[in-house]
Amino acid sequence: MDSKGYRMVNAYVAIDVETTGLNPKKEKIIEIGALRVREGKVEEEFHRFVHPRRALDERIAALTKITDDMVKDSPGIEEIIGEVVEFCQDLPILGHQVMFDYRFLKRAAVNQGIEWEREGIDTLKLCRIFMPEGESKALPQACRYYQVDMGDNHRALSDAYGAHALYQELVRRYQDKEPQRFCAVRLNYKVKREQPASKRQKERLQELLKYHKIKSPVQIGHLTRNEASRLTDEVISKYGRIGERAGGRDVREVRKAPGSGGLKH
To answer: Nearest Cα to 187, choosing from 254, 88, 256, 253?
Structure first.
């Protein structure tokens, strides 16, 4: 704590997740990278691929450089979220737009009955304060501006290292002048535990997919009630109910289901 009473952060977990999309209610984690840091030094690394229980579309594979083969033998998030929480201990988490990562991780924790309240430090917010207005504040560009090496971007562990190195450089340059900017703040995200899909929901969805000769875009056994209901509605909207067609369209037409990885024959 400095002379003005600000609690300085010298221990934290730099964390980053790669996902199938932006909405934590619909999308899935596919990779987690984290560093436990004390006194500015990396104490331990954490890295896991995560099976999203669905096929990865080409856009996500191109962006993250993560393929189906890379995650096919990996555990689901429900199997490892406890490890993530344990790795973080009671430390604040740090990330570039840290609320994005926290929303996905907290939802996964709550679904396993783990209450996970955190304080956090956002390097993106710090960059918006200290960098010139015309400069891009994205992590690769911010690291380049401050001459910080982050390795390959758009991968979880390298992005965690990038956020950590960027934060340390920002601390070195600006902490003495504006110490209040470097305090961890409470991360507020309320989420309720999701219920697994019922037996009847799964049976109904399987009947629809079989009738329309559609290959399931997800592992049905791992769906929540909301996910099963949403996917069922998408199938009916695009292909029709059993015994009918949707709007007279040919049910053999291949169409993509938003947030589901695509519906394919």
So the answer is: 88
Helix (H, G, I), strand (E, B) or coil at 65: coil
Tell me phi and psi for residue 218, to 5 degrees: -140, 165
- Chain region(s) in the chain for CATH 3.30.420.10: 11-186
Q: Which CATH superfamily is domain 11-186 in?
A: Ribonuclease H-like superfamily/Ribonuclease H (3.30.420.10)
* pTM confidence score: 0.87
Residues 65 and 155 sit within 8 Å (Cβ to Cβ): yes
Q: What is the pLDDT along the chain (265 residues), one digit of tens a residue?
A: 554 555 667 899 999 999 999 999 999 999 999 999 999 999 999 999 999 999 999 999 998 999 999 999 999 999 999 999 999 999 999 999 999 999 999 999 999 999 999 999 999 999 999 999 999 999 999 999 999 988 766 689 999 999 999 999 999 999 999 999 999 999 999 999 999 999 999 999 999 999 999 999 899 999 999 999 999 999 999 999 998 755 544 444 334 444 444 444 4
State the residue for tokens 């009630």: 225
Is 33 in contact with 47 (CB distance < 8 Å)?
Answer: yes
> How many degrees, rounded to 5, is the angle at CA 11 between CA 10 and CA 12?
125
Nearest one of 187, 35, 192, 2 to 113, comparing CA atoms: 192
Which DSSP state fits 218?
B
The residues facing 121 across adjacent strands are 94
